[in-house]
Write a structure and sequence with these properties.
Elements lengths: L9 H4 L63 E4 L3 H12 L4 E4 L11 E4 L2 E4 L15 H6 L9 E2 L3 E7 L2 E6 L2 H11 L4 H14 L22 H7 L3 H7 L4 H5 L5 H7 L8 H12 L5 E2 L2 H15 L3 E3 L4 E7 L2 E7 L4 E3 L2 E4 L3 H7 L8 H8 L5 E8 L6 E12 L2 E10 L12 E8 L3 H9 L3 H20 L6 E7 L1 H8 L28 E3 L9 H19 L6
Parallel strand pairs: 1-2, 1-13, 2-9, 13-19
Antiparallel strand pairs: 3-4, 5-8, 6-7, 10-11, 11-12, 14-17, 14-18, 15-16, 16-17
Helix pairs in contact: 2-11, 2-17, 4-5, 5-10
Length: 559
């Protein structure tokens, strides 16, 4: 997971992680959506699951481990964590003339924006649809400046975004909201009025874009100011945003009489505010939210190449143990093994809540950081399936035998199929993914403490295997891969607090963007927590913001 970032378009577009994820249990999120590395079925939470995760299109940059900087290459800026936010902060700092070192604990960049290989299958872990993939959007500028995309970069836009099966009928949610409304009205005439309202609201929400701006007091080579036309064009959508922000998606969809329509439209968690739903639909209807070639690893790899071509230094397989602070000023970091790197500014792009717990002897006490730590988590259990059969895109369907997941019943299932994605599976086979949504961290943590973690995962895998065999007429031997990544896997692989990859925004919830500054001079933060609900747009926007804060702090011109 793609996802949205600002108080405008960012609100909803990135909350629908994967089409399948959004539909499981309580639903999910996207643009990027959950991104994690799936563990092996035999050893899920102990080993690094992505050690062999590479694809030909995933990266154009080398993934070798760089040596530590010497005295004459001492960085001016250190960025902790090479996810999308960290890559973005490092790229902008380096291109602004600041010698930058980017430090990542794993052997590849991307953080939650990742994918992995299992037995010849490639599984996409994050980017299922990306806000800003359309060159006509404001956000696309950031993706191009960081090397993630190019103006003519291949992007896939499937006509059907999601579908459900009901009593033998298939109800499609198309990217085109008017087509969706026509077909849904024909299926359920009683819902025509509600669908007409939905179309009107989606068209109004299309006026919203995430404006690209610069922070105050910044010396910038290219001033970024939203045009008056862009800002004036968004004004009619503001009352709609205010109204939708006060109700949940579940309550909003209660106006639809047919349950199949409510199912098909629940593409964000039902407890999220309705702004998330409408702006997600607006993103799709506006021709945005496509799947970039190469997926998550491709985007992260291109950003790595951009950073290294600018002369930045990347340290892989090096873990930051703590941020060094003297006299209320950040002075550098201490690495595993006790090695110290000094710098004039430090950007922490590890997930903020976890970073505050792990990287500081005395963490900063700013009020906004306290709010971040009190925020709820969006998490999931992510499933990767390799099948020795051709399984096309499949609508959400009712299970003959409900699954039991973390003490909860799952009565319906949806799958992301990569049947026609080159390189994702051996010939005649299919890579599938899905996600069971919900913060089940405590369940899995207790299972691990009691020594039944593997047993619980195996039990879930067996239930999923039976469901797939029943649905598609498979034999168990045709399921070549069935890997399960729990919130504990996310926590281990990414360092995120309780494995959270987004921050839920419920009715009346705060959607403000945090500044990234704190009481410690020279210390700045970036990442999805700074721009609820988060996702990849939030990561790239806050990474850019952190680089601007660094430039202002060091009196450098932002480029």
């Amino acid at each position: 997971m793609d996802t949205d970032t600002t108080n405008t378009e960012a609100m909803g577009a990135q909350t629908a992680k994967t089409q399948a994820a959004e539909k499981q249990g309580a639903s999910g999120s996207s643009a990027s959506g959950p991104a994690t590395s799936a563990p092996t079925a035999s050893d899920p939470a102990a080993s690094d699951p992505t050690a062999s995760a590479t694809t030909a299109s995933a990266t154009t940059a080398s993934a070798t481990t760089a040596s530590a900087p010497t005295a004459n290459t001492q960085p001016q800026v250190i960025v902790v964590g090479a996810g999308i936010a960290g890559l973005t902060a490092a790229i902008y700092a380096q291109r602004s003339g600041l010698a930058t070192t980017l430090i990542e604990q794993h052997d590849k960049v991307g953080g939650m924006c990742t994918g992995w290989q299992r037995k010849g299958y490639h599984f996409e872990g994050a980017v299922h649809w990306l806000t800003g993939s359309n060159p006509n959007t404001e956000l696309n500028r950031l993706w191009r400046e960081t090397g993630a995309l190019a103006s003519d970069f291949p992007v896939r836009y499937d006509e059907v975004f999601f579908s459900v099966e009901h009593d033998g009928h298939i109800i499609n949610l198309y990217r085109d909201i008017q087509r969706t409304a026509r077909e849904m009205s024909a299926f359920s005439p009683a819902d025509s009025a509600a669908l007409k309202r939905l179309v009107k609201e989606v068209h109004t929400a299309r006026r919203i874009q995430m404006p690209i701006t610069n922070i105050k007091g910044l010396k910038a080579a290219n001033p970024a100011r939203p045009s008056a036309g862009l800002l004036l064009g968004m004004l009619p959508a503001l009352p709609l945003m205010a109204r939708l922000g006060k109700t949940s998606t579940r309550d909003y969809l209660a106006a639809f009489q047919h349950p199949a329509l409510r199912q098909a439209l629940t593409i964000v968690p039902p407890e999220y505010n309705a702004t998330s739903l409408i702006f997600t639909l607006a993103t799709l209807d506006g021709g945005d939210g496509g799947f970039p070639e190469g997926g998550s690893l491709g985007m992260a790899g291109r950003m790595q190449a951009c950073f290294e071509q600018l002369g930045g230094q990347l340290l892989l397989k090096r873990k930051v143990q703590r941020v060094l602070v003297q006299n209320a000023t950040a002075t550098g970091v201490q690495l595993d093994g006790g090695e110290t790197l000094l710098a004039a500014a430090v950007v922490v792009a590890q997930e903020t809540h976890a970073a505050l717990q792990q990287l500081f002897d005395a963490p900063p006490q700013d009020a906004w950081l306290e709010e971040v730590c009190q925020a709820k988590n969006s998490a999931c259990t992510f499933i990767s399936i390799g099948v020795e059969a051709e399984i096309p895109a499949t609508p959400l369907w009712q299970l003959d035998e409900p699954l039991t997941h973390a003490g909860q019943k799952v009565e319906e299932l949806a799958l992301n199929s990569y049947l026609d994605y080159p390189g994702y599976a051996p010939s005649g086979c299919t890579a599938l993914t899905t996600a069971l949504m919900g913060d089940t961290y405590e369940f899995w943590q207790q299972a691990r403490a009691e020594g039944r973690y593997e047993q619980e995962k195996q039990r879930l895998a067996e239930q999923l295997s039976r469901a797939l065999c029943q649905r598609f007429g498979l034999s168990p031997s045709q399921i070549a891969v069935l890997d399960i990544a729990t919130p504990l896997t996310y926590e281990r692989y990414t360092g995120a607090w309780h494995g959270a990859w987004m921050t839920p925004v419920e009715p009346g919830g705060k959607m403000a963007t945090y500044s990234g500054e704190c009481e410690i001079s020279g210390l700045f933060f970036a990442g999805h927590r700074l721009m609820p609900p988060g996702g990849m747009p939030g990561a790239v926007a806050t990474g850019r913001q952190a680089a601007q804060l660094v430039c202002r702090h060091l009196d450098a011109e932002f480029v």
